[in-house]
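Protein 1 of 2
SEQ + STRUCT:
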Amino acid sequence: MRVRRAGLWNNRDFLNLWASETVSQVGAQITVIALPLLAALSLDASAGQMGLLTAAGTAPPLLLGLFAGVWVDRLRRRPIMVATDIGRAAVLLSIPILWWMDLLQIEFLYLITFVVGVQSLLFDVAWVTFLPAVVRREQLIEGNSKLQASASGAQVAGPGLAGLLVGFAGAPIAILVNTISYLVSAAFILRVGTPEAQPERNADSRVLTEMREGLSVVIRHPLLRAIAASGATVSLFGYIFLAVYVLFMTEELGFSATAVGLVFSLGGLGAIIGAVLAEPIKRRLGIGPAIIFGRIGFGLGGLLVPLAVLAPSFEVPLVLGAEFLQWLMYLIAIVNEVSLRQSVTPDRLLGRVNATMRFLNAGMIPVGALIGGALGGLIGLRETLFVGVAGMLITGLWVYLSPLRTTQEVALVTDHVPEPDASRSQESSTQVLTP
């Protein structure tokens, strides 16, 4: 009973993993703000160069996501996390050094941003894959809830801290703080004592074959397929929406920069609350209905933005409410989706399945952003927002029309997920659900 009350607070390995993720997330949020400011203020970067800098940071999941999953499944996860933390610190350290030597150029920032993005991809896939080794299966939702809550908290605190650091000490010093945060993160990971078995691997297996296996598992598993389709839909239409959202707030609604910042900060607050509520809602509804509740609520929350257009007198509370509600609902869905994915996927495939999900979701981000930018010029900002909101409503249909609707709990995982060469008539024990 004492352990049940304490939950994961008695699990020292999880607490160290949690501390590592929290510190690295705060540091990463500092760089998200400091790096563009460095390019704009110190290097006089043009709009095109700023776009290339953003693309360099977001390209790794699309270009290397599937390969990252193969690598994480072939190696122990804890050393990957330590190595990528130290690697990110070393690469980012070059920025203040080059700045101090007056050698910093925008081309260096492209390369540094891309390399850090690759290492962050490996770190993120590794920790999501490592978590089931640190906590029991029935504690996955609690663990993911705590990790997502701290990540959301970093989204709230990180930008403000970055602004203070850049204002008082300059962008290079702010980035230096991030390098320290990654070293602290690595130190916490080294304190995790959970033993890892040597990953299983077929010596004759090739990288492309293993990448296809990860894709095949996601596509053929009815629960994973629904979650992947829902996530890709959110990325596509969400970034159609986001491509013009800031312009809409500043040009159409007349929001100041401070007001725009408040909108996004309130979204981070909603995310924290959603992460905390994810487990109680799962206990109340079941894991499948909790995911559906979060996804449908996310889509409905977006409807408050068109209402702000139709009711100008209430535009500020409606936009704030939309940001808060959508992030709250999104985290309810995400925490439960990640936990379900970790439960139904055997350890030997978990890295590839996690990476495949990132690949499918991230692949829609640039597509959505390009479509949103084009539509904004062709049909207008408000109309583009309506397209994004309408698309985000679809996200709930993918999960509602799947077996998740009657999924209360996931049966214990075994090593019999759908394989590329397996008979289609063979029943997978990971699909045995408790209605």
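Protein 2 of 2
SEQ + STRUCT:
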Amino acid sequence: MTATHSDILSYYGSPAAMTQLEEYVTLINDLPGDSQKLVKALQGLCLHIFWAERYGIQLPDERKSEVTIRPAWRKVARLLELDAAPLDCARPLDRRLVCNCRDFSTLYCAVLRAKGIPARARCGFGAYFLPGHYEDHWVCEVWDADAERWRWVDAQLDDLQTKALGIDFDPLDLPTGQFVTGGQAWQLCRSGQADPDLFGIFEWKGLDFVRGNLMRDLLALNKVELLPWDFWGPLETPLASCSETDVAQMDEVAAITVLGDQAFDRIRGIYTETRHFQAPASWQD
């Protein structure tokens, strides 16, 4: 059976293991239902690990480990350990949950789904961090019912970051080309339209890195939002040692993730049918 548009919205409007927040439903109800106001609320709860010093915070090593927490419910639990105030109350900087771009996007996605709003985290590269470079990054797609379209939202970019980066567009409605999905990056590099070494973060870059974000984006579209450094099955063999069949399979993954809703059935099917694509179940606990 082919999924309808309504089926797709229903799928992304409900949580899965990584984004379920059932035990915190009362606290989640305190957060804004408006997707744009929710971004501001989450920015008052989270502190990006790489931006902490720009806010005047020196993070102790034990706090940095908060970015290794995978499921959203565990992140909320840790946030409440740091400060038990209601979630609609902004925390002092030193009591905010230490996060990265994946966490901002996944937490945002989790709260939206808890409120029945279709949303999906996306893994790829941002074109707005360094000139001429595509930075390893996550954003979130949110269904805009009024406009009847998916809106791309960077929940990480607050006023300080927007000013520091010279952002001249709306982070709550990213223009085309500002965020490149893992699948788009793979296609650009495979076709020779882009240099793979322009995609990555710090010293990590190249086509193997792009493949990682391609696969994480596929899993995110299947509601399995992994950590940026998670490695499993399809990533364990370097591309240089992969067969033509393996590379062709990556080409297919790129093609269907770029198509998005148009290839929803295949996006679901290739993940459920290809066992080594599936992340360890323990990662979602």
